[in-house]
């Protein structure tokens, strides 16, 4: 039986497999730290993120303010931690939104032959636009707000999920257990959920980790360009946008949120890479 | 159709459970070309009998099995199942009808959803029989597992915890859960080790006797077919070449293709050697099947006339039917 390892076997070993890969471990550790900081933000922030102190404005990193202060004397460390909450929340919900749209599109395109050509063309058309450009257009149409940024990015990334889901569905649709269910007279919606969707978890998970990383970056980009979430809400993107004016005198205002973006995006990418390798049966033979 | 009513082979009952007439399945390949997967196939399966469908890969035997269950929609033909024309049923009626026919798959690894426990797999089948969640369904699950030689504590496990033979038993239990009258067994043992093949074949024979199952047994392995079946239907490139009782076809095949198939099967006794009829080349493309007799391009006895007419499946007596110009009445080679 060992020779006939199935996807279930593979999944049991995923965590073990991740822990055997140093880049994945690094990614996992950094991600856990960032997420923990975001969750326990109110406990770990040394100052309230909005606290103004004109006397201590534009101070460099010191023991009092580890990451320095911004033009209003607000503590950059506290604001970076607080902004992480928004950035991660936006990233996470974008993953959920794009997964909902993408899985639905991909499932229908993959399972129903007649729907495949129109849906596939739609997916291709959406993927033909550069991500940020499409996102800007969508936000411009919907109006800038946190919800609309999430919606816009969700739509932008949905085709990536849809493509992967469609490809996997095309394979699963032909497997004997789907045919067995049809032979039993199981209704199609039940087949789609019980037999197809349940076996799509791994590829969606891999895509999700990449979309998470991209969404954090894209949100920062949108906020930097002024079409993201409201500038009053600190996100890593808005912090960089505001700090840009003081780049020469007080670079730290934008360095630290920048480093936060790099760390979170890289950790997610490393994790996603490792997951993809582990879940790809052609590559997992080497482990 | 020029086919006479099937003669009694042994003691075949008067009304067969399944009568297929003129079954045709065409697939459409890119460029508007037509793949002639199944052409004009007739089948008769009596109640409680196992009919074996044999042929090399590409002969359309699996497509026949799938179309009978309407897992693939047939292009043409009729199928009477216990008096009902199954091909004429609407999708809704078909859903109800499905519990009367089931399928056992070749690959025991892809036939079970890796994410479901054995209990959930059997439950899905029991659902269609109206077993609600609860005691009765659990009892029935255990009963079915025991019927196929597994035990109650296997129910909570996942498919990957089982060997190929055990998985095939689970697949059989799932098929039996709906209490079908008719089962298509599509190469049920060809993915298994030889030692396990015998176990599963014995199980199927046992179930046939206890439950009175009627089966279409599809295989490319003649020794398996000969062991398991009452009757043999030999297919080549979508058409039936020969049909007769298992014993007759095995001992005295009439069609040159059957003869080649039998000769190619290994003989367990090394001192008995058969005259080997080598069959050159590959099966032709079903997109452009040869004119006349589809087997003529590889037939050692082909005549110029074979290219002109499609030989009809002709009754040659003793319940045997052969589609060959060179086989006359009484099975005499011309």
CATH homologous superfamily title of chain A: MetI-like
Query: DSSP helix count of chain A?
Result: 14
For the largest sheet of chain B, list the strands in their spatial order: 6-7-8-3-9-10-12-11
Q: Please estimate the helix content of chain A.
A: over 70%
Q: Give the low-confidence spans of chain A.
A: 1-8
Assign the structural class of chain B, choosing from mainly alpha, mainly beta, alpha/beta, alpha+beta, or little secondary structure: alpha/beta
Percent in helix of chain B? 25-40%
Question: Which two chains have the most extensive interface, and how many residues on each?
Answer: A-B, 23 and 36 residues
Please state the structural category of chain A: mainly alpha
Number of strands of chain A: 0
N-C termini distance of chain A? 18 Å
The major pleated sheet of chain B works out as: 8 strands, mixed
- Spatial extent as radius of gyration of chain A: 22 Å
Helix count from the secondary structure assignment of chain B? 9
Query: What is the element string of chain A, with H for helices and E for strands?
Result: HHHHHHHHHHHHHH
Q: Write down the overall geometry of chain B.
A: globular
**Total count of strands of chain B:** 12
Which segments of chain B are poorly predicted (pLDDT under 50) over 5 or more consecutive residues? 1-10
């Amino acid at each position: 039986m060992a020779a006939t390892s199935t996807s279930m076997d593979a999944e049991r070993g995923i965590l073990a497999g991740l822990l055997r890969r140093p880049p994945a471990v690094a990614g996992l550790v950094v991600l856990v730290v960032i997420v923990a900081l975001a969750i326990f933000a109110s406990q770990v922030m040394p100052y309230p993120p909005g606290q103004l102190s004109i006397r201590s404005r534009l101070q460099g990193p010191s023991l009092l303010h580890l990451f320095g202060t911004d033009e209003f004397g607000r503590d950059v460390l506290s604001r970076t931690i607080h902004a992480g909450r928004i950035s991660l929340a936006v990233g996470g919900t974008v993953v959920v939104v794009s997964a909902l749209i993408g899985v639905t599109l991909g499932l229908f395109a993959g399972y129903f032959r007649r729907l495949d050509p129109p849906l596939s063309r739609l997916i291709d058309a959406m993927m033909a636009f550069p991500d940020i450009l499409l996102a800007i257009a969508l936000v411009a149409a919907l109006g800038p707000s946190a919800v609309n940024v999430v919606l816009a990015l969700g739509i932008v990334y949905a085709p990536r999920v849809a493509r992967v889901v469609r490809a996997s569905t095309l394979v699963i649709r032909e497997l004997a257990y789907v045919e067995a269910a049809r032979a039993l007279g199981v209704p199609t919606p039940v087949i789609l959920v019980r037999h197809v969707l349940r076996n799509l978890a791994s590829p969606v998970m891999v895509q999700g980790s990449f979309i998470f990383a991209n969404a954090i970056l894209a949100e920062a980009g949108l906020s930097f360009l002024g079409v993201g979430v409201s500038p009053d809400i600190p996100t890593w993107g808005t912090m960089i946008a505001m700090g840009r004016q003081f780049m020469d005198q007080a670079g730290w205002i934008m360095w630290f949120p920048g480093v936060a973006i790099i760390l979170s995006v890289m950790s997610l990418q490393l994790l996603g890479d490792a997951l993809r390798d582990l879940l790809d049966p052609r590559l997992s033979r080497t482990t | 159709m020029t086919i006479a009513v099937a003669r009694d082979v042994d003691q075949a009952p008067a009304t067969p459970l399944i009568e297929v007439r003129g079954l045709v399945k065409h697939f459409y390949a890119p460029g508007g070309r037509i793949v002639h997967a199944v052409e004009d196939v007739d089948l008769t399966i009596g109640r409680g009998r196992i009919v074996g469908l044999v042929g090399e890969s590409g002969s359309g035997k699996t497509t026949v099995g799938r179309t009978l269950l309407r897992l693939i929609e047939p292009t043409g033909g009729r199928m009477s199942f216990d008096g009902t024309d199954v091909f004429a049923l609407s999708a809704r009626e078909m859903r109800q009808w499905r519990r009367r026919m089931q399928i056992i798959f070749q690959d025991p690894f892809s036939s079970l959803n890796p994410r479901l426990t054995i209990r959930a797999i059997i439950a899905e089948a029991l659902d269609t029989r109206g077993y609600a969640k609860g005691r009765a369904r659990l009892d029935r699950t255990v009963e079915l597992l025991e019927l196929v030689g597994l035990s109650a504590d296997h129910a909570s496990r996942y498919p990957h915890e089982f060997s190929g033979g055990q998985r095939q038993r689970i697949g059989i239990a799932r098929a039996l859960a709906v209490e079908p009258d008719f089962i298509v067994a599509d190469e049920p043992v060809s993915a298994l080790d030889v030692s396990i093949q015998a176990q599963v074949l014995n199980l199927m024979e046992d179930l046939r006797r206890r439950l009175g199952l009627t089966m279409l047994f599809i295989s490319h392995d003649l020794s398996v077919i000969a062991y398991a079946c009452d009757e043999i239907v030999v297919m080549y490139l979508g058409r039936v070449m020969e049909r007769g009782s298992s014993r007759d076809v095995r001992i005295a095949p009439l069609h040159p293709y059957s003869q080649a198939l039998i000769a190619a099967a290994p003989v367990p006794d090394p001192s008995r050697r058969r005259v080997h009829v080598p069959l050159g080349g590959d099966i032709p493309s079903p997109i452009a099947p040869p004119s006349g007799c589809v087997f003529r391009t590889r037939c050692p006895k082909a005549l110029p006339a074979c290219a002109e007419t499609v030989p009809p499946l002709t009754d040659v007596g003793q319940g045997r039917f052969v589609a060959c110009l060179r086989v006359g009445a009484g099975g005499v080679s011309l």
